[in-house]
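User: Please predict the structure of the protein below. I'd like the answer in structure-token form so I can feed it into my own downstream comparison script.

Assistant: Understood. Taking the following sequence of 69 residues as input:
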Amino acid sequence: MTELADKIRQCRELKGWTQEQLARDLGVSLNTVQRWELGKNQPSPLALGKLQATLDDVLEGDQLRMLLK
């Protein structure tokens, strides 16, 4: 698993969301979120921007923010 994949999963869990809830909020499929969290695919630049906005309340410090840029 990649560092970005781990951070996406950690942030999602901190919000108390399922993968399905995150997918719905971002407008992507459940399979897309699953592939991101398994490190099989990387989010597109557009998806990274949406992730940043969606997960902003649980991001801690610049290190996490840098991973989502």
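That's the full token string. The mean pLDDT is 86.
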